[in-house]
Amino acid sequence: MVRLSMGCGGALTAPRVVLTAGHCVTGPGEDTSIEVIAGVTNLKSGRAIKAKSVTVVRPAEFVSETGGDDWALIKLDRKLDLPILEISSGGADETGTQTILGWGNTREGSMQQETKLRFGSVRIVPDGPCAKAYKKIVDLVEDEMICAAAPGVDSCQGDSGGPMVRQLARGKWVQVGIVSWGLGCAREGYPGVYTQVSKFRSDIREAARKLS
Ligand code: ARG
Question: Where is the Peptidase S1 domain positioned along the sequence (predicted)?
Answer without folding.
Answer: 1-209
